[in-house]
Write a structure and sequence with these properties.
Radius of gyration of chain A: 20 Å
Low-confidence stretches of chain B: none
Shape of chain A: globular
CATH superfamily of the largest domain in chain A: Phosphoenolpyruvate-binding domains
CATH topology of the largest domain in chain A: TIM Barrel
Strand content of chain B: 15-25%
CATH class of the largest domain in chain B: Alpha Beta
Oligomer: heterodimer
Number of domains of chain B: 2
Distance between the termini of chain A: 17 Å
Structural class of chain B: alpha/beta
Number of helices of chain A: 13
Largest interface: A-B, 11 and 12 residues
Strand order of the largest sheet of chain B: 1-10-9-6-2-3-4-5-24-25
Number of domains of chain A: 2
Largest sheet of chain A: 8 strands, parallel, barrel
Distance between the termini of chain B: 22 Å
Amino acid sequence: MRRSLLFIPANQPGMLQNADVFEADAVIFDLEDAVFASEKDAALELLNAFLDAIPLNKVEVMVRINGLDTDQGLIDLKHIVSEKIDTIMLPKANLDVLNSCSDILDELELNYQMLKRISIVPIIEDADACFHAYEIAKHPRVSGLLLGAEDLAKDLEVERTDASFEIFFARSQVIYAAKAHQKDAIDTPYVSTKNEEGLILDAKYAKSLGMNAKACIHPNQIDIINEIFSPSKADIEQALRIIKAMDDPNNKEKGAFSLDGKMIDKPIIERALKTIEKAKKYQLI
Amino acid sequence: MKNSLGRFVPHGFIPYESDEAYLKLKRHTISKTLSKNKDKLVSSMSQLFDILNIKDGMCLSFHHHLRNGDGVLNMVLDEIKQRNLKNMVLAPSAIFPVHAPMVELIKSGHITKIYTNYVNGPVAEAISQGFLKDLLLMDTHGGRPRAIESGELKIDVAFIAVPTSDKDGHGHGISGPSACGVLGYPIPDLYYASKKVVITDHLASDINPKDIDGNYVDYVLKVDSIGDPKGIQSGTTKPTTDPIQLKIARQTVKLMDALGYIKEGLSFQTGAGGTSLAVAQGLKKIMEEKKIKGSFASGGITYLLVEMLEAKLFEKLYDVQCFDLNAVESYKKNNHHLFMSASTYGNPLEEHPIVNDLDVVILGATEVDLHFNVNVTTSSSGMLMGGSGGHADTAYGAKCTIITTNLMKSRLPIIKKEVKTITTPGSSIDCIVTERGIAINPKRTDLIEKLKDSKLHIVPIESLYAYAIKMTGNPEETKMTHKKVIGVCRYRDGSVIDTLYQV
């Protein structure tokens, strides 16, 4: 369960040291696009040393490795997989790459005698991955799908726009695939880091479609994303009322009951329970 | 001799006892000196020096409203140099990089002693390097008027830069080519210096308001320019966009809210730095949401406080200096934007200084120690780079003093076992807000009780220190090669809170 995921270039010590300051639900240490080819090995070394030295506080630790179609991708996996990380973010994902990554993780976890099972968040960033999102999300190691809209636009040969009509289908694919398997649907970052209003509109729209989290590339975007993807005060109050009504002895034995003249049945109760679960996790109640 | 905080006090000075020791003092003021002159206009700085018989060893004072655009102090320095005056004592309320020409005169012995509340730039470096023959005496903004009115700081001639003046010396700072707004700092000099001179670059008639009362002015000198307007505006004019500082600002506003200070009648002060402006911005938002009207905001005034006044989020502003042109305009047109002298602002011996009515003040820090003592005077290596200004005054007066600071800056921990120089005693500091948690002074059990069910990350200051040291290592203390005393930091009551050393 995530709301915000912050990308941090793995070759920037000043940014690494503040990774857990900003209250993102997950930090994604980026070994891929944010790091020049000539600095890949140094970034990997720095990230490892950082994770060894500094335990991060209450934050999911993700690492975006280089693509497994490159030598560096495999090197990244071999060196970074450990109990210190929670999730591998897998670029240029498709079913073959995902299976390959999972196999390597099986082997590394066994070799390193790890107690933890590393999850994978594949990035859906080309037309092929978009079409196979359902199968990708189904994989047991996958804990969420991230839409990578910038690369996808390149693949589609379309321009990225603020209105984002060009990624409507991809967003829907990611959402339906993820939700079908109870995984997180993670929206693409909003790249205009100084445009707060644009971010708010974009994030609200993504949430309205069914996204339950959003990645970001600047710490100043986190508060907005957390607020939008958290249950609202009104949602929490209503959920608490539903749970209270459900516990009423008059309603307990019924499959459905009435609250404020509206029918409350199993899906609504389950949604209320999920809202409460999220509210507790995010310390909203 | 050591003071109650364990800091060395040079012979002849009163050691700091506590932040409430001033309560034992009685207010004695020397007579205010009205001018009998009828014809006050003089033609040149040289003529002024002749008329006033300025000679070796005299004390000359200045204000800092023109900040890093000030041209007046440098004009006087020129004349001192030309006349080869020796052992001069200067008492500018603050010294900025623009005053670099002073360095040569310090090294040559023309200037041998300085009183100020803030020093930054080449002059700070020269003094830190031990070039000032006598001592640097650093006061607070409230302590300076106390020292002047008592005659403890005896000023022979006050040179008062005034952006608009008439030929009788009535003046203000709201118009003219060097308009800088409110002139709150020179008022004690105007009343109590032996002789007072207005230096202006804009002579006018029908002066209104008469912030500078010409009845106290002996001479008026019209010059081509008293300063560079570009340097007059404060350095920072926008809220920070730095993510760490923004987080600190947000936490600060949440802390104020959790402590119950954001309510009807709130009185508030903050500075002009990026984090301070971000706090003001956050406070504005929450006051608008909750439809709260505060009583006043005070201190140096920025456009954000002006916006809050205009949005009726505060009933009035008490202004000792304007940090930007929006504040100047507001003071001009809004009669709820009020003039405040340095004494009214923070003089501990005033019957009711404004600082004592503050609910919350937001302040910065160069270093904080485990006893909550704050240094804003020197770097961690002991080099002069600032001074109290109103830090110690507002920290004492406000019901809640909040320090906002990064836990680490440039790989240095900001929270340390001991600060290099104590500017403001820990007894006046209530909360430290960093990006990794908020520490509450254990003496403020009332605040701790209010926060017991809060979701804010409240931690002991020792935990913040331990984290910082874990990240940065324990920096080796800079060894003082000479241990030569170069000055003292005086608390607002005039006692010495710490001693400054050559680096």
